[in-house]
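ESCALATION

Customer reports they have been waiting on this structure for their group meeting. Please prioritize. Original submission:
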Amino acid sequence: MTKKDQDLSYLELFKTLFKINMITFGGGYTIAPVIMNDFCEKKNLITKEEMLDLIALAQSGPGALAVSTSLMTGYKTKGIKGAFVGAVASFLPPLLIISIIYLFYKQFASNYWVRAALRAMSGVISAVLVITTYDLGKVALKSYPVFSACVMVLSFVVGYFTNISVGIIVLFLAVLGAILFRIKE
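Update from on-call: job pushed to the front of the queue and completed.
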């Protein structure tokens, strides 16, 4: 760990990931760029390439991408205890929000303004997903442009035109990448 990594306290790690998971709607792909911005650009604790690797690892594991990305970010910055802090900071906000919504569901479901806000958020989330895909694609294309472009196009075509699960596609590509890059070394 670098000096800068040690300066990040567990409380600061928790507060940062809790805040991100509390105010970011749309799942892991909308949370990942916010975490990347905070930890790569603002705090300068993780490089974009490392963050891309963390997101890829988080995506290949079971469970929600937001939780896995927060867990991996916590692990990268503070080790095993940081992973635990990251996981708690990521599942606590949705648990609190769902609990509040459960208590006031009838009032939320019939409120015109709540429904309008949710419809507006779906458009914003779509834009964030496009930007995230573009940013992650740029990083992936930087190191191995031909291989990365082929993998992106192939995975899109297979995912779009077949009934093969995205999880199976990701698992296959992870194994393929591990084999190819192991041979290259």
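Sent to customer with the following note: Confidence is low (pLDDT under 50) at residues 1-5.
Escalation resolved.
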